[in-house]
Amino acid sequence: MATVEFQIGHKDYTLACQAGEERALRRAAQLLDAEAAQIVEQAGRMPEARLLLLAGLMLSDRMAGLEDRMAATERELTRLKTNPLQVEVPVIPQQIGEALAELAARAEAIALRAEDALADEGAGDEGESTAGAPA
């Protein structure tokens, strides 16, 4: 058996626990001590038994709230697994797809003619600049 020392409300405690449970016991003691510190801050000093009782009740209330939230989350998860959201993807009619393909082909043809026209203009400009230059 392992022994763990901790403090709650400025009072030292020592508890025995199974080997490997020390970390969990320290964490639980830290939570209880933090709750006790809040109670002392709000209500002032009080007998140890009352302080530990109130701190335990506060932690139990917090845990009950978390259990309620977890249960609600689990119900929502079950609902979503049972009835998954359905997303409808619109299907584009074949005629529209063909029309878009034809438009794309026309746009490419126009772009090629425009590039050829610009290339011809550029070649004509180069010929004029060399023709007008002194030899």
From TrEMBL:
InterPro entries: Cell_div_ZapA-like, Cell_div_ZapA-like_sf, Cell_div_ZapA_N
Superkingdom, taxonomy of origin: Bacteria
Secretion signal, residue range per the UniProt entry: none
Organism: Paracoccus suum
UniProt record, GO biological process: cell division
Protein name: Cell division protein ZapA
Pfam family name, one: ZapA
Keyword Cell cycle assigned: yes
The entry's keywords: Cell cycle, Cell division
Taxonomic placement: Bacteria, Pseudomonadati, Pseudomonadota, Alphaproteobacteria, Rhodobacterales
